[in-house]
# Entry
Amino acid sequence: MENTWVRFGNKLELRYHFSERSNRVDALMRHRCEREVLNILRALAELLGVRMTIYTEPTENEVDYKERWAIAGGSAHAISIVINLFMQMMSKPTLTIGGQMATEYNEEVEARLQKSVALFRRDLKLKKREALIPCDLIGLLCASPRYKKYKSNFYEVLKGFPKVSKITMRELNEKNRSRSGVLEIKRERFDLFILRGGDLPTLKDTKATIEIISPVLKDGKYRWKGIYNKGGDIIDFYMRDEDFKQQMFEEKITFSSGMCIDCVLEIERRLSDSGEAIPVSYTVTTVVRTRVGKMEILTPQGKRHLRKQEAEKQQLTFDFFG
# Structure
């Protein structure tokens, strides 16, 4: 039974504008779009530790179609933050006009995002009224594959219905009076939010460690099996370091139980429908050293790799100072 005493002091209104005089909307489109809106709101609330409950509220539509969600929870200020984050993210394009990613995502961006969220979450938990959205948080969230995918799903559905000419969104108070300006996204900009496929940029781990379970000591496109140090997951990977394979074929390096390799590992990933980055392929491109117990052997290609890294580091330092 619904609690009638709950105060819905924050509301989000999303309006679909049509190219014809109508207030009818395709039911499938509406539900698919609503799912992505709720996915983003719930993900943001969970990220920031904000408690909230969302209800659909009836609206009267003479023309176009309005969707309104009434939101209640522990802190009206924190809920307002979540709504504003949602609106700014939904209006910030994922792609440039040339079709490139507007914001790239890597381990450095992830670390910055986690730091920014942790500090902001602390301020919200302390119920600081002056807690404002950090200036870098929108860009960092928009770089996240999860939110890119949710937004892409939303705008891809809208694009499939030519009747939709644009959407607008705003925050309302409990009396349905506007709390924010109206954000507008026109149809001609929908493509800037739609991903061109599920593939993500290849992630390169230059300090990977893999404990080899099963090597493949013969030619062919067969995958090796090992335990990846990050998370301890068992992975199947391709060995593309031909020098290392040759050293094993010639028994210059002998495989033994418990052998680990420090290496450069490339990880190909794809976005799932829920916006999660799923690894689909692992490839070792350079074996830097082998380790068995306390014995370590630096490979010739590993020496070259480390010298190259040091030269690049010095070059960056030189460029920075002069």
Q: What stands out?
A: Residues 27-48 form the longest helix (22 residues). The chain is about 35% helix and 30% strand.
